[in-house]
Recover the amino acids of this structure.
């Protein structure tokens, strides 16, 4: 009996030892292993230098560059920069969008440059002429809005002020991850320096051209700068052209006549959310192109342009919005535009569901904005 037990123990030990040695069969037809960004040598060492879901999180696993390095430091060149704007103290409803940049990056974990060939166009914007990087987040205080917005303005000016990687198109362009919608104002101030006034295509459920005396109550200049007044201020500063347009509007206004007249005076026309039912996506695309024809364009996407069923994680949700597919179809249809800057804002991850619905949608919207920028390079003025 003892000899039999000894033999069984020896057999078990041998089986465990043998099980530790795993031999993989040869892999055919696989260029890069799913989940790895490096070469894979079946007969040699595994390359673990670029696995997905590891290391610091960047948008779409893009390389991180310290774009805000001090003067004199060597900074890697880029053509399109992703920058986060963790700011939400300009909201009039639910806060939480300061965590939007990290939420959008979370939604982009499954996107990777070498695995992004578009099913509809056959193109991969990450692998074309533009060098695209993630610059991380702007360092913004959460205790003083005026200081924070000045910090964000300087961040934009530093990032856009560096010489681009492509020598023919020497001004880098920025896509901002928000953050509440107030963060678009510093972005427009920066693009004005390089490209002059622009047409704004504003995807939103709200107008955001309210007079600071109305939305802010006239309490103070400080209170009047918020996520519902930034387009009024941009118009006041001469940053936007009278060929600007809203898309997806459906929220109520404060004053039956004044708000709409004032919006028109700020240079905007309106595509309402339900206009999509009559015009279709192609009709909306044609209207946006017609309105902004011959101008340089800044695209701002408030994630609440989507119905709360598709984007619950936002500060001021309005029912009756567009689907994610409809928004992406419209964005992808804006080919040929000279898009000089863009943002995706009002993503507040605390209100998202376990499936990260809003964050996934926002990440894909950013992807579409990148594609528009890559398809049409734009020349700007590099400041001395």
């Amino acid at each position: 009996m003892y000899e039999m037990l000894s033999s069984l123990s020896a057999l078990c030990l041998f089986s465990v030892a043998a099980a530790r040695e795993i031999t993989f069969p040869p892999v055919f037809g696989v260029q890069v292993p799913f989940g790895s960004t490096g070469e894979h040598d079946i007969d040699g060492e595994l390359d673990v230098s670029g696995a997905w879901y590891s290391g610091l999180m960047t948008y779409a696993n893009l390389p991180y560059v310290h774009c805000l390095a001090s003067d004199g430091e060597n900074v890697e060149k880029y053509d399109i920069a992703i920058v986060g704007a963790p700011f939400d103290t300009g909201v009039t409803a639910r806060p939480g969008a300061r965590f939007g940049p990290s939420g959008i990056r979370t939604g982009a974990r499954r996107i990777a440059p070498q695995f992004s060939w578009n099913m509809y166009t056959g193109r991969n914007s990450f692998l074309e002429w533009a060098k695209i990087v993630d610059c991380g987040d702007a360092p913004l205080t959460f205790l003083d809005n005026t200081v924070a917005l000045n910090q964000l303005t300087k961040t934009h000016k530093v990032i856009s002020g560096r010489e681009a990687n492509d020598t023919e198109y020497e001004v880098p362009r920025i896509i901002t991850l928000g953050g509440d919608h107030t963060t678009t104002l510093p972005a427009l101030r920066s693009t004005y320096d390089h490209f002059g006034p622009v047409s704004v295509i504003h995807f939103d459920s709200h107008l955001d051209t309210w007079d600071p005396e109305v939305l802010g109550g006239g309490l103070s200049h400080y209170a009047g700068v918020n996520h519902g007044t930034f387009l009024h201020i941009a118009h006041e500063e001469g940053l936007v052209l009278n060929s600007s347009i809203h898309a997806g509007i459906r929220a109520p206004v404060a004053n039956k006549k004044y708000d709409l007249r004032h919006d028109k005076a700020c240079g905007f026309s309106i595509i309402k959310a339900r206009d999509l039912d009559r015009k279709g996506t192609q009709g909306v695309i044609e209207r946006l192109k017609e309105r902004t024809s011959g101008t340089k364009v800044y695209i701002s996407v408030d994630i609440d342009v989507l119905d709360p069923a598709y984007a619950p994680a936002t500060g001021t949700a309005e029912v009756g919005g567009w689907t994610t597919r409809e928004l992406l179809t419209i964005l992808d249809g804006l080919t040929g535009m000279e898009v000089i800057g863009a943002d995706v804002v009002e993503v507040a991850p605390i209100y998202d569901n376990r499936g990260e619905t809003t964050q996934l949608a926002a990440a894909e919207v950013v992807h579409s904005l990148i594609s528009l920028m890559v398809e049409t390079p734009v020349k700007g003025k590099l400041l001395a």
Q: What stands out?
A: Residues 27-33 have pLDDT under 50 and may be disordered. DSSP finds ten helices and eight strands in the chain.
